[in-house]
Every structure is written in C-alpha cells, then in structure tokens.
Amino acid sequence: MSVLPPATAPLTEAEAYAAFADMLDGKPDEEEIASFLSDMTDRGERADEIAGAARAMRERLIPIEAPEGAIDVCGTGGDGHHTLNVSTAVSLVVAACGVPVAKHGNRAASSKAGAADTLEALGLDMDAAGRTAEHTLREIGICFLFAKNHHPAMARIQPIRQKLGKRTIFNLMGPLSNPARVRRQLIGIARPAYVPIYADAMSRLGTERTFIVSGDEGLDELSLDEGNEVADVQGRDVTMKRVRAEDAGLPHAPVEAIRGGDPAHNARALEALLMGAPGPYRDAVVFNAAGSLLVAGEVDSWQDGAEEAAEALDKGLAKQLLDCWIAAAK
Fold first, then answer.
1. Which of 6, 204, 230, 260 can bridge 51 by disulfide, Cβ–Cβ 3.0-4.6 Å?
2. Total number of domains in the chain
3. Does 106 show up as a binding residue in the annotation?
4. Per-residue confidence (pLDDT) for residue 112, from 0 to 100
5. Can you tell me which residues bind 5-phospho-alpha-D-ribose 1-diphosphate (predicted)?
C-alpha cells in the first residue's frame, strides 16, 4: 500500500509536510520515495511544497545554540559551474566583520570541492569543528555545521538521491534547515526563474531578513558577470530586485574567471585571497559579503558592505579568524 500521495499533481503545504514527515521517518520504501521525488522534480516544486517539506526537516534536526544576530551564507549547489568556494570565503570575511556565521554545509555532491572539503584542506579538523561548533560560534564568531551531523533522518534518503542522479527538492530544503535556526540568511540558488518561488517559501517559514539570489547564468550566488535576480524577504514581504556588480562598486567578470578545482586547488586560492590576492575571486567574495552584511543589518548599502568586506581582507582579519578557528577546533 502506498504511503505517499501522488507527486504528479501539486500538494498543499500540509500534504507536503505529511509526505516528507513520513519520508524522513522511514515509512515509505525506497522505490516509492525515488518515484515521488522524481515526479516532483519533473513538474517543478511549488512554494507551499518547499515550505511544508522544510518544516518536516526542521522538526527532525539536531539544533545548536547560536548568538543573537547569527546568519548563514550558503547555496543550494548544483549550478554546474564548479567555481571556487565563494560562500565559504564569504563566511570568514563576514565573521571577521563581527557578524556571527553559522555555516551550514556538506562535502561536494555535484562540484569538485564542497565547503567541508576545502576547509579540511586548509587544516580545519571537521570532526573537531563539529564537536566545538557552539563554542567556536560563541567565542570566535564562526562554526561549521556539517549536515550529516545535524540531519540524521537524511541517512536513509541520501543513497536514494545519489541513485536518482538529479536535483530534487532536497537540494532546496538544506539552506532552509540550518541547525542554528538563524533568522537572517543569504541563500544562492541555481535557477534565476525560481527566486520568487523560493522566496515565497522562505516567507512562509519566517525570517527577519533573507536575500535569495541567483546569477543570470544560473550561478547559486551573486555573480559578477551580467546581473542577478534578488528577492529581499522581510517577514512575509518579498521585494524583487536586480543587482549588478557595479552596485557594490565592483567590476564585471565572467564566471570562468572563478573556476575552481579539487579541494587542494580551492584551498590554495582561498589562502591567497586571505593573504590579499586581488582579482575576480576576491571581487566575487566581496560582492557576496556585501549582500550578507546588508542582510545582517551591519551596513546600509552595497557599497558600504563591499568596503567593510575589503577592509577585513586587507587588514588580515579574515585570515586571523581562520587561524583562530583551526586552533580552537581541536
């Protein structure tokens, strides 16, 4: 007997919540889950479905305590551009500016180097970082929340996702299920046309302020290339905006200019960035950090955010923070 409703037709938020609660609790068999997820992906997820699914996931996570004003900076992944680790570097810069960052992430799925892979290559002990997350977030202003440590219900789902070999709604649920329960975020998604849909889902879940961003070329972060779709979500209100690099006083650059590689390659690039290396990678990090500082309420404009982020790099504050983090996560 089927446990899940047919996913070929749209579900209400309540129906989606119930379906994903059953899924995360291990009630349907693997074949039924795979068919359900595939059908939903093929027709396209709705805002109420994303919100309902995220509620179910949030109820089953292992939370941590976070200081007031903590934010997250992450992307859904799956954009296929294989860029350097922008949101990881942004997290270091923003934390160096005094805004606590509860970085939610994982190892690479579709890219060559996820946040966890690159941080590990830089010398951060990922197991220790997990054990000391609350401490480092409180004392240093940053932590890494390894998804597998905080979402045990996903252990059965992950192999099904890998067998499917395509994007599913679970790609969208991760950024909405931060274990620190942050109320301010910058979330990158890989589909510009989906920004308002995802923003609608976020407004249903509750947020003080979140930017949902997508580069015109399908980049899951703010792009230096052409322009960006940005949804500014404040409570239930959603405002759509177009944002370009020059809004932050930065030059344009093609996405190829920040193409990444394996964890060792990306770690070297991030290290050089923290040591003051100029170029498109720095500009991309400064751009996304500016948006993050705006979301956090630290600055009032893209220009001010870019200047504060650049200062954190130029003064070596982001490098100092990483060194402190590595030393503390033992």
1. 204
2. 1
3. yes
4. 58
5. 75, 78-79, 83, 85-88, 103-111, 115
Q: Does any domain span residue 237?
A: yes
Q: Tell me how far apart the alpha carbons of residues 72 and 191 are, in angstroms, rounded to a whole number.
A: 20
pTM of the model: 0.95
Is 88 marked within a binding site? yes
78 is annotated as contributing to ligand binding:
yes
For 9, phi then psi, to 5°, come to -115, 150
Domain residues for 289? 71-150+174-328
Q: Mean pLDDT in runs of 10 for the chain (330 residues)?
A: 88 97 96 96 96 97 96 83 89 98 75 78 92 96 92 91 88 93 96 96 97 95 96 98 98 95 94 97 98 98 98 98 94
The answer on whether 86 is annotated among ligand-binding residues is yes
Please check whether residue 22 lies inside any domain of the structure. Answer: no
Q: Is 206 annotated as a binding residue?
A: no
Q: Is 79 annotated as a binding residue?
A: yes
**What letter represents residue 148's amino acid?**
K
103 belongs to an annotated ligand binding site = yes
Q: Is 111 annotated as contributing to ligand binding?
A: yes
Predicted pLDDT at 148: 85
Helices (DSSP H) in 208-316: which residue ranges? 263-274, 280-296, 302-314
The enclosing domain of 188 has a CATH number of 3.40.1030.10
Predicted confidence at residue 79, as pLDDT, reads 66
CA–CA gap between residue 116 and residue 18 (Å, rounded): 31
On whether 110 is known to bind a ligand per the annotation, the reply is yes
Whether residue 81 is contained in a domain is answered as yes
**Annotated binding residue at 108?**
yes
Rounded Cα distance between 278 and 269, Å, is: 11
